[in-house]
Structure prediction request, 182 residues.
Amino acid sequence: MKGSTDAVNSNETSGNGVIGFWNKQSSRGKLGIGIGGICCIGLILIIAISAFMAPDATTTTTNLNNTPTSPSTPSTDTSTNSSGTSVTAGQEQAAKMAQSYLNTMAFSRSGLIKQLKYEGFTQQEAEYGVDQTNADWNAQAAKMAQSYLDSQSFSRSGLIEQLEFEGFTRQQAEYGVQATGL
Prediction:
C-alpha cells in the first residue's frame, strides 16, 4: 500500500493531477475558475428551482364535465397588469424568470429572450417577460464587459465584438466597454 500512496504523492507534487494543475494557475486564473464555477452552480440552481416550480407535464386535470384536458393545452388564465391589459400566466412567469436571471447575471435583450425560449416560453411570452424587467441594457453591457475582464484579457475592439456576439447593439457594447475603462 505504501508504494501506491507514494505514487499519488509524487504525482501531486510533481505537477501532475488536479493539485498540480491548481498550483500552476495564477491567482487571476484561479479567480476566473472560481467565478466560472460559481456562475455554473448558480445557473444549475436556477434551473433546478424552476424545474421544481414547473407544473408536472404528465398529469391531466378534469373539468366539471369529467372531460380530461391535455397538459399541453395552453393556459388561458389571464390577469390584468397596471396598464389594464390582460396578461397570461405564461407571460407572468416569463417576467419573473427574466428578472431572476438579471438578478444573477448580465444579459443582452436578445440573449435573455433566447434563454427564456430555451426554458420553454413562447417568443411572445419571452419578449413580454424581458420587456417587463425595464432593464438598462447599457448597464447590462457594462456588467457583462466587467465579468469578461475579471476572468480573461481582451483588447477594446475584441471585447466590443464579444458583447455584440452576446446580442448587445454596437452602441450598448461600446458603452459597456467604456464603462470598464478599457
